[in-house]
Amino acid sequence: MSCPHNNYREMEESIHTDFKEDMSYADYLCLDQVLQAQQPLSTQHDEMLFITIHQSSELWLKLAGHELSEAVSNIKNADFGHAFKVISRVKQIFIQLTQSWNILSTLTPVDYLKFRDALGHSSGFQSYSYRKLEFLLGNKNAKLLKVHQSNEAVYQDLNQVLHQPSLYDEVIKVLAKQGLQIDETVLARDFSQPYQKNNSVLKAWIEVYKNDEEYFQLYELAEKLVDIEDAFQQWRFKHMYTVQRIIGNKMGTGGSSGVSFLKKALDISFFPELFELRTHL
Ligand code: HEM
Questions:
Q1: Phi, psi dihedrals of residue 8, rounded to the nearest 5°
Q2: Which residues have C-beta within 8 Å of that of residue 83, sequence separation ≥ 6?
């Protein structure tokens, strides 16, 4: 019987304890591999936080890519219900990722400098899960594949996503299928190129928003996309701001100008017309 007085919980007889044959929690999750993957290169206490925050972010980024790939195929198959579900999940993943900057902010510039040299030229800029996500959302840039040349499997995967229609490209096809007039140049564009704002797409979205009841599903989809961009931009901003707090205007380990390079990413919109239409309502 549980006893509230002795601050102690009895082990229950029915609890499984023999995992010589049975699959355990650690077996299922490959925890030996995961928990041995934190290998600091310096003797500095704070390097563990730095590694942990990167590794956990990488897991979330990988999951976000998994979910967004699903959203792209859902939209392709006109399965809006499932698309909404996974897009909402991606938004929450980004909120979670943005929150993690607050933990990293406990790393002071002095703490970081003690082990920064150990990183060499490695940088989050080389994160392929992040790049895949940017490509899936439509921020295409073939030059960014270069840093992945030494990893054939990753290179091929990213190259494939670079050339395929992004989430927004698929959404624009839906606009056309629902009878809204979209320029052929947009529908048959080279998907490996960055998406350029287009007037026919803007007009179509204005039509959707002005007739929200008639186009309710598209209207809901558009607002979900805005949610994702909002959450993504908050991550970008918090990254840039945390970096500024930790390294000021120093160059990045990846070789860029650092904060000023990160600031330029804030000007990139995945769904430019969805923001512009607001001015025209
Ligand atoms: C002390 C902590 C950090 C610093 C000082 C830092 C600094 C930078 C800098 C300066 C860049 C630009 C590229 C370069 O020259 O290196 C960059 C890019 C990047 N970092 Fe970080 N970062 C930090 C933590 C993180 C964490 C925890 C993540 C999580 C995965 C991350 C992910 C990225 C990504 C994805 C990029 C590419 C962004 C883009 O292409 O716009 N960074 N970082």
A1: -145, 135
A2: 71, 74, 75, 221, 224
Using the mean position of ligand 1's atoms as its centre, give its distance from the Cα of residue 263 in Å. 12
Q: What is the CATH number of the domain that holds 190?
A: 1.20.58.480
**44 domain residue, yes or no:** no
> Pick from 94, 166, 168: which is nearest to 136 by CA?
166
Give distance in angstroms: CA of 196 to centre of ligand 1. Answer: 26
Using N-to-C axis directions, what is the helix angle for 80-104 and 47-76, rounded to 10°?
170
Position in ligand 1 atom list of the atom nearest CA 250: 10
Q: Does 52 belong to an annotated binding site? A: yes
Q: In terms of C-beta density within 10 A (0-12 exposed, 13-18 middle, 19 or more buried), how is residue 137 classed? A: buried
- Domain for residue 7, yes or no? no
Number of structural domains in the chain: 1
Domain extent, residue 273, equals 55-280
- Per-residue confidence in pLDDT tens, the chain, 281 aa: 555 679 999 999 999 999 999 999 999 999 999 999 999 999 999 999 999 999 999 999 999 999 999 999 999 999 999 999 999 999 999 999 999 999 999 999 999 999 999 999 999 999 999 999 999 999 999 999 999 999 999 999 999 999 999 999 999 999 999 999 999 999 999 999 999 999 999 999 999 999 999 999 999 999 999 999 999 999 999 999 999 999 999 999 999 999 999 999 999 999 999 999 999 99
Specify the long-range contacts of residues 152-157, CB closer than 8 Å, at least 24 apart.
154/128, 157/128, 157/132
**Domain membership flag for residue 20:** no
For atom 27 of ligand 1, which residue has the closest CA? Answer: 54
Q: Is residue 212 part of a domain?
A: yes
Angstrom distances, CA of residue 123 to CA of 161, 228, 272, 275:
22, 24, 28, 31
Determine whether the annotation assigns residue 54 to a binding site.
yes
